[in-house]
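Hi everyone,

Forwarding the result from last night's run.
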Amino acid sequence: MRSFDPEKLQGESIVFYDGTCGFCQASVQLVLKHNKRHNLTFAALQSGVLEALVPAARRPDPLPDSVVFYEQGQLYTESDAVLRIARHLSFPFAALYYFRFIPLSFRNFVYRFIARHRYKIAGQAQACMLLGPEERARFVA
């Protein structure tokens, strides 16, 4: 796990996820496996990294509790975050990015439904994910 240095993280693509959500942790595992370029970094929303990296005026209020994606100084939430993350994955997951042509209101409706029920789908995590040294290097705390 890397230590937090805001200057070094400015140019990175960072997936912020709910560290207590089993569904979110399984999603992070999927992203780790299919991000062959190793160009994504990860941090739990509960870590405080997002608040330290992005000024309050540029953060959504309230801050989503499921996934936020930081890329090139921009924050993406809900379905936009998921689709932008998908662009960094190998096929067939990268093809999900083309769902951006579906109207945002419908995409976010589906996203919110899943986010609202994610604890019912996969439960809450009682322990941290077990990661190898290579994966641990891609997490910020």
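Residues 22-34 form the longest helix (13 residues).

Cheers,
N.
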